[in-house]
Amino acid sequence: RSLRLFSTIQEQRNRELSQGSIQKKAKKWNLRAEDLKLPPIVAFDASEVKERDFANVVSCHIDEKATYVWHSLLFKRGEHILHAPDLGSGTVKSVCLSACGNFTFLGTSKGSIEKFNMQSG
Question: How far are the Cα atoms of 3, 20, 35, 37, 61 from residue 26, in angstroms, in the given order?
């Protein structure tokens, strides 16, 4: 259960994007590392336009009310977790980045669409 970048040119460039210090947290809380990983991804989107400035990948996961942003150049999860307001028992089902790379849109199971700034969350 991870987000990976694959290179079609060189296999050595393949990388897994980090979810943080899962092994350390698992050991501290006496849990399995697998239990702390994010659920499988339902949808994701990426944009190369602003990849040097801020997080440029967004993902939504099975039965999650939030979406996560990722830095493809730093190979790690970003600082923001995007929560759709007033979601109740619904979940995020789809994500899309704008053509300019500044905004992300979340589609929810309740039928609403939410807009977030990728820099500030």
Answer: 19, 11, 8, 10, 21
